[in-house]
Design goal:
Largest sheet: none
Helix content: over 70%
Order of helices and strands: HHHHHHHHHH
Radius of gyration: 21 Å
Shape: elongated
Number of strands: 0
Distance between the termini: 42 Å
Number of helices: 10
Strand content: under 5%
Length: 190
């Protein structure tokens, strides 16, 4: 609760990361986010114990990233946001490196302006890229962009699992509420 304590814990955690690095064999349940959460929790509890001679109360322990707590929900939402952001960055890089590819631009337009028709979005993108793009070509790029984006999300999730199997990847996608982004393409996202 104390911003100064939070800052000290963050600094102590980062020092430990740089000094000892992460040990993949210590990843609990095979998910990097669980390992990271446990490591941060351990540092926070150690910090509180050092600062207070008395035993920590159950109430105080409950505030340090417990399963299903508000902090845990916020942690999961932030993790989901990071996975999506990395997928967007990868999609943008893919567009930059692939001639005539408009995946990032098309999907970003569609996501930012879902109420507009493909004709309107194709016209808007035509202005931006300086060459004509028909509505049917826009829709085709959008379909392909969604499929590629789903693959990128699955790839990001897979990288955070120690032994990624189809089942563990799917469970993590569900836990992170990312399944709606990939469900349609999951069979082809591997």
């Amino acid at each position: 609760r104390d911003p100064h304590d939070a800052e000290e814990v963050a600094q102590e955690f980062l020092v430990r990361v740089f000094d000892k690095s992460f040990c993949p064999e210590n990843v609990s349940r095979g998910r990097f986010r669980d390992y990271l959460k446990s490591a941060v929790r351990y540092v926070a509890i150690s910090h509180l114990r050092q600062r207070r001679a008395v035993e920590l109360s159950e109430e105080m322990l409950a505030t340090i990233i417990q399963p299903d707590s508000d902090a845990d929900v916020a942690w999961t939402q932030e993790w989901q946001s990071c996975v999506l952001e990395r997928a967007w960055q990868s999609l943008e890089l893919h567009q930059q490196q692939t001639p005539d590819n408009l995946f990032y631009s098309v999907l970003r337009l569609h996501t930012d302006q879902p109420q507009k028709s493909s004709e309107e979005l194709a016209a808007q993108l035509t202005e931006h890229i300086g060459r004509p793009l028909r509505a049917d070509a826009y829709r085709q790029q959008l379909r392909r962009a969604r499929k590629h984006f789903a693959k990128l999300i699955v790839s990001e999730v897979r990288q955070t699992l120690q032994n990624p199997t189809a089942q563990t990847v799917e469970k993590e996608l569900v836990d992170l509420q990312l399944m709606p982004y990939v469900r349609e393409f999951l069979a082809t996202a591997d």
